[in-house]
Amino acid sequence: MAVADRPKPAVKKGPEPDSESETVAVRIDELVVGRPLRHPIHDKDGVLLLAAGKLVTSEFKKLLRKHGIKDVKLHQDDAGTARVTATAIKPTSALTFDCDLAKKLDSVVDAGLLQVVNKGPAAKEERVEHGRTGYSQEKVNSLKERRNEASASITSAMRGALNGGPVNASAMNKLASDYLADMLEDTDCVMSIALQNNLNADVAEHCLQMSILGMAIGVEMGFDQDNCNRISVAGLVHDWGMSRVAPQLLSTNRVLTHSEFYEIKKHPVYTAEILDRTHGLPSMVNVIAYQVHEKPNGLGYPRGRSGDRIHQFARILAVADAYTALIAPRPFRLPLAPYAAMEILVRMAKSRDVDPDCVRALLNVLCLFPIGSLIALSDGSVAQVIRRNGDNYANPIVQVIQDPTGESVPHDLDEAIIDLSKSDLKVIQAVPSPLREESLDVEEFVLLNRSK
Hints:
Layout: E1 23-27, E2 41-42, E3 48-50, H1 58-66, E4 71-75, H2 76-79, H3 100-110, H4 137-162, H5 169-185, H6 187-194, H7 203-220, H8 225-237, H9 247-251, H10 258-265, H11 267-276, H12 285-291, H13 312-326, H14 338-350, H15 356-366, E5 374-377, E6 382-387, E7 397-402, E8 417-419, E9 427-431, H16 442-450
């Protein structure tokens, strides 16, 4: 649910300001969406913009920008609550978990043992390219069945591990191996099924999605089959420690407090504890899973590592993790449409919140308009993206589902499948899916997260 749609708390109105000295000039970018105000907001000339007792909304801020208003006057009583002040910022530092296991994992990083070497040919060499060919319905049905079985298998293994039981590593290894075989046969079809959103997705479903997407990125980046399987298995298990985090923290519809988010940040260590008693996983999986939430710019957790001090496969999985989280619903926001999620990731790459090379590979795997996206074309028709198009990520292969008059196009019509790189048709805009509520508002998402 978007911030502006949340239940509006009762706000006790304060008195009007008695003088100019009681107001503070504030940039509208500083105003946090969803914050209640006791006093009215005025522009620099004293014109009323928002009455006392109202909430700051995304729509209100957009309207101000539309009229060229960049600064407003805020009563000093509201200045500390309607925005994030310097005194609210907690000093940032790497978490210092002192358990022996965390120290052991850190010693691997500190020893510089994170190099990745292929021992076989790149898996990409065996990947079949299908051009404008549609999906096999038999393969679609098989992948849907496998997704359900895989999610159940992960859930079972995770619950067993949480209760202190042994983890069936061979089941995770086989799951990854089977998905790699399918991916090399038809990457686009695998992605189309794997990234279909379950509105009630749990930790196991999220792990499965990002595992498959991380594997696809690894294939695109030229890693061999053993390394691609290693990426996939690390993705399958990386969030298992979340099962030890209080459920109310994971389902809250508000911004977490500093201490609450600290509890979330502990889950990589909880995962490491589970993996430490698990035998048969590919080498380095424990280190990769431990580092998935680190960021190249050093602002991640649990240790605040940066650059090449983060395993390359953890950087790959961080991109997969971010994308799958963006297209999933949250209690406080709608899921982002695939195109909007991709735009956010490109922005994150610029700030080095994620690895730019991994985002570039993701663009090649899913296209700028990711598989499954709906797009409006220059002739007025609407199409669904069904295949990527090599390095030409801005012009995917699509299947027209509505003609320019709005009439439905038969799904088995061969000429409805179009390679946009060889067509005069152009993409005009991304279109939200009618099958679920989703947002294309990138700016609102940025504002929501800027307020956290």
